[in-house]
Amino acid sequence: MPKKAAGKASGKGGKGKGKDNDTQDVSFQMRKVRVEVAKFCTELRIPPELDLEKLFNTKIYDALIENSGKMIFQGDRPGKAGVQALSCVLRETCPVYVSIRSLFFWRTEVGDEGVASICENCLEKGKNESHSWPGFVHLELLDVRMSALGCQSLSRSLRENIPLRNLVIDHNAIGDEGATHLAEGLRGNSELAFLSMAYCQIGPAGGVVVGEEIVRCTKIKQLKLRGNRIMARGLTAISLNLGKSESLQQLDLSDNSILSDLHAVNAFCEALRTNVSLESIDFEHNVVGPDATSLIAETLQMCPNIKSFKACGQGVNSELFKMTLKDSKGGKKGKKKKK
Predict the structure, then answer these.
(1) Distance CA 71, CA 89 (A)
(2) In Å, how far are 62, 82, 111, 139 from 115, measured between CA atoms?
(3) HEC string of 246-307?
(4) Alpha-carbon distances, residue 205 vs 211, 223, 230 (angstroms)
(5) Three-state DSSP state, 196
């Protein structure tokens, strides 16, 4: 018997027909997939020795059998041309034959051209309610040799309010220019909730853009900027706009060369007192010094919404923050009602 894609049972006792796409024959789906894979590998002149047809067919088959909705690539393959071919295949097969929702590219060469293909062929497809397909909602581009030019492609797609919810572009040298492109694309975008730009060579000017555009004007709930160099200028800009954000819940500013600039720290503390949405902040590996540490600790006592604040580095007493949060969130538990 041919295998079928995993699906949820319906009706009493797990019986019932369920949705059509839950019971589709995988062998039937794969016939269409193989045709499209072969066509685009030929059109784009993919060298047969790369064996990308087998790679794509295997990845899609596994996603169908496991009903995972995701594809993960890492290492040498598929390469720039391979990514272009894959994006074309997904454009033609999603969601009627394949319901891929998440794409992961880890330390593989996608490049700016590959990112442009993913944006045009996959992200901009949008969602398909008739097939209960949410669209491509998760994209990870980890160390894929993308520059600010790739961020331009992402910006154009984000501007269309695509259904993408999570975007990770860590370890790509996009710089301040790339951060600016993304900020422009996020104006008016109400879908993206998670954005990670760790180790992206973003400097103080990029930090200003993040504060004035992304923190202030978007619906982002989780923002990760670990390992950049926004410094005191970037922290000040982010701080001046934190009070205007009603959606941001988690903020990672760790390892950003933020030193003991009391003006920046004062702006940061003022922002913590006015913001009501933040729940978690990572401030590790910034050398702010003992005076700034005490000031932040005092401020946290007035911020009942913040449940976690991480800090370490020269002159930082991390235990002070733990005790401060414990004390400020403490209180007697209410009495249990008698049965």
Answers:
(1) 13
(2) 24, 12, 6, 10
(3) CCCCEEECCCCCCCCCHHHHHHHHHHHHHCCCCCEEECCCCCCHHHHHHHHHHHHCCCCCCC
(4) 10, 17, 7
(5) strand
Q: What are phi and psi of 205, to 5 degrees?
A: -65, -40
If DSSP codes are grouped into helix, strand and coil, which group holds residue 135?
coil
User: Count of CB atoms within 10 A of residue 108's CB?
Assistant: 23
Give yes or no for a contact between 116 and 150, defined as CB atoms under 8 angstroms apart. Answer: yes
Give yes or no for a contact between 136 and 150, defined as CB atoms under 8 angstroms apart.
no
Per-residue model confidence as pLDDT tens for the chain (339 residues): 344 444 444 444 444 444 444 445 788 899 999 999 999 999 999 998 889 999 999 999 999 999 999 999 998 889 999 999 999 999 999 999 999 999 999 999 999 999 999 999 999 998 998 888 999 999 999 999 999 999 999 999 999 999 999 999 999 999 999 999 999 999 989 999 999 999 999 999 999 999 999 999 999 999 999 999 999 999 999 999 999 999 999 999 999 999 888 999 999 999 999 999 999 999 999 988 888 888 999 999 999 999 999 987 655 666 666 655 555 555 433 344 444
β-sheet bridge partners, residue 168: 140, 196
- At position 18, the amino acid (one-letter code) is G
